[in-house]
Design brief:
two-stranded antiparallel ribbon, 106 residues, mainly alpha, 4% strand, 3 helices
Length: 106
Amino acid sequence: MFVLANTLNAIVVVLASLFNIYFWIVIISAVLTWVRPDPYNPIIRTLRALTEPVFYRVRKWLPFTYMNGLDFSPVVVLLAIELVNRIVIVSLSQYADTLQRTLISQ
């Protein structure tokens, strides 16, 4: 059971790191839309490839996120990332801690 608890802790750390990295990628992508960077720059193309499919799905499911030339889909994505962090990641972490405490007390 220690293996399960340690595996869950490792999954929590990796998922939290990935969500944190993607959070910053979304912020950088949103800020870059204000300055109109060169679309042929490989960094810009990578950022667009990482964020545009998610933004497209948000715009498709919630059409009110794009109004009058303003795109609020990055805000929705950031809120979703934070919601997943607060619910799923924290719950997995607490479950792993409970498993470890239960195993230690036995």
